[in-house]
Automatic annotation (TrEMBL):
Entry keywords, A to Z: Cell membrane, Membrane, Transmembrane, Transmembrane helix, Transport
Stretches assigned to the Major facilitator superfamily (MFS) profile domain: 20-504
Entry's family note: Belongs to the major facilitator superfamily. EmrB family.
InterPro entries: EmrB-like, MFS, MFS_dom, MFS_trans_sf
Name listed for the protein in its UniProt record: DHA2 family efflux MFS transporter permease subunit
Database matches in CDD domains: MFS_LmrB_MDR_like
Molecular function via GO: transmembrane transporter activity
Classification of source organism: Bacteria, Bacillati, Actinomycetota, Actinomycetes, Propionibacteriales
Membrane topology: Multi-pass membrane protein
GO CC annotation: plasma membrane
Transmembrane segment boundaries: 20-42, 54-75, 87-106, 112-133, 145-168, 174-194, 206-226, 238-258, 279-300, 312-333, 340-359, 365-384, 405-425, 477-499
Subcellular location: Cell membrane
Length: 520
């Protein structure tokens, strides 16, 4: 076979391809479960690691997603430079080592730092897995194999919170990370044996300067935002100086990105209308949906006093809703323009998020479960059609860069949404005398010290109504935060109205008739 000939692939899915698919599914399960399993653990982190503000503990999520955003554009270059098998083994090792370090963390600062290590490994697993599987299976069999890969994507949001809650209830929070050790070792051995050797083929140069501007810029800006509750004002140097430094770095990155031949993010692609409006919609959607959804398990634990396991069970309807509509939306997107599909999904999300703005200390569980299920239905009808719309009209050679741009946008938007909405929640909680007094009493009990006299006087003045007042004002803090997420959802819905409402020709095949690898 000459270098220009394509390898021949059998029509049936043989055992060799299934073995490689097993490697990719195992890596996907580790990565996706870890994203969802931590959400239910945030109240436990606050208690066990003595964290005062929710906005601080939310950095265990923000740091991970920022690490994902950093490593996604690096993956393609590194795979060509070092080979996919070597890089996949390195990603597994990084993720597993990061998980063990997270389990050993003794402070919230250490946990956040180790989550970055974990994210650097986890961020490479999915795109590398897709590349490995595409090379092994060929274009004609990818559709059937994607159904296999879709299993962890659909089950992760359902099983992650339940598994995390069960481990916290029956062991400790450390086990939500330690469970990755046997999985990681098994995946390393399995990958070493099953994955074929490949020869590195260095290609494009990597934009290290762009990465050194984008990643620290985003981290500094979001750190400044999340410091607002601690400082109490935006006038504090810790807030405005870091936000300014981060903002300037991001602006410098945007200006610089139009100069290199192979920039970290090819912003020139925004000349394409479909990509621009889809990316804007994706950014707003991810910020609103993932930022708001993060609060739900915490509401169940802090306001309704549910165990982490029960909180995980209660948020499962959202994942079930997404599991129902995602395959339907995937089938419809080939028959109808995305501008007819995504607004329906966003309308469902808006309805669900509005339902969450009505939460109180005693809101009925059937109501909450119904609201989360509706949001899940909307989520399943939104994400994949948006991705498809953005990439469909790009030229062949632009698709890989467009996919990278979209996925980084999603991760960055999730980080921004989590940071902003967690700051809103923290400020609302700190503005409540009842919630602040309850926390002061809990801290005094933990340390064995006498509560401040002002707190005791406040509790005495409220009398028997104290506990009820704490629950009511804590619920009101969550409801207020959900209003921010709802407002973002409404803005996102407006953006969906500008999505294309006519079928357009697809360019999602390359010059050899093969679909490109889309990084997720």
């Amino acid at each position: 076979m000459t270098s220009t000939e394509l390898p021949e692939y059998p029509e049936k899915i043989d055992s060799a391809v299934l073995k490689i698919a097993g490697v990719v599914v195992l890596g996907s399960i580790m990565s996706i479960l870890d994203i969802t399993v931590v959400n239910v653990a945030l109240p436990t982190f606050m208690t066990d690691l003595n964290v005062q503000n929710y906005s601080t503990v939310a950095w265990t999520v923000t740091a991970y997603t920022l690490a994902l955003a950093t490593v996604i554009p690096l993956t393609g270059w590194a795979a060509d430079r070092f080979g996919t098998k070597r890089l996949y083994l390195l990603a597994l090792a990084l993720f597993t080592a990061g998980s063990v370090l997270c389990a050993a963390a003794q402070s919230i600062e250490a946990l956040i730092a180790f989550r970055v290590v974990q994210g650097l490994g986890g961020g490479m697993l999915m795109p590398l897995g897709m590349t490995i599987l595409t090379r092994a299976a060929g274009p004609q069999r990818m559709g059937r194999l994607m159904a296999i890969l879709g299993v962890p994507m659909l089950l992760g949001p359902i099983l992650g919170p339940i598994l995390g809650g069960w481990l916290i209830d029956h062991a400790t929070w450390h086990w939500i990370f330690l469970i990755n050790l046997p999985l990681g070792v098994a995946a390393l051995v399995y990958s070493w044996v099953v994955l074929p050797k490949d020869t590195p083929q260095p290609g494009e140069s990597f934009d290290f300067l762009g990465m050194l501007m984008m990643s620290p810029g985003l981290a500094l800006f979001l750190y400044g935002v999340s410091s607002i509750p601690d400082e109490g004002t935006m006038a504090a140097p810790k807030v405005w100086a870091t936000m300014l430094a981060g903002g300037l770095l991001v602006l410098a990155f945007i200006a610089y990105s139009f100069k290199p031949q192979h920039p970290l993010l090819d912003l020139r692609l925004f000349r394409n209308y479909n990509l621009s409006i889809s990316t804007l919609t994706m950014f707003l959607f991810a910020a609103a949906f993932f930022g708001g959804l993060l609060l739900v398990p915490t509401y169940f634990q802090q306001v309704r006093m549910e165990t982490p396991f029960d909180a995980g069970l209660l948020v499962a309807p959202q994942g079930i809703g997404a599991m129902l509509t995602m395959p339907i939306a995937g089938a419809l997107v080939d028959r109808f323009p995305v501008g007819r599909i995504v607004p329906v999904g966003l309308a469902l999300i808006c309805a669900g998020m509005f339902g969450l703005t009505r939460v109180e200390a005693d809101t009925s569980y059937p109501y909450l479960i119904g609201v989360l299920f509706v949001m899940g239905l909307g989520m399943g009808a939104t994400m994949m059609p948006l991705m498809t719309s953005a990439l469909r009209t790009l030229a062949n050679h632009e698709v890989a860069r467009g996919s990278t741009l979209l996925n980084i946008t999603q991760q960055v938007a999730s980080s921004v949404g989590v940071a902003i909405i967690s700051v809103v929640l923290t400020n609302q909680q700190k503005s409540s005398d009842a919630v602040s007094a309850a926390r002061a009493l809990a801290e005094a009990e933990r340390t064995g010290e006498q509560p401040p006299s002002a707190v005791l006087q406040y509790v005495q003045s409220v009398g028997d109504q104290f506990e009820k007042l704490v629950s009511q004002e804590a619920a009101a803090a969550f409801a207020h935060s959900f209003w921010i997420a709802f407002a973002l959802c409404v803005v996102t819905f407006v953006a969906t109205l500008f999505l294309p409402k006519k079928r357009e020709a697809s360019h999602l095949l390359d010059d050899e008739g093969k679909p490109p690898v889309v990084i997720h």
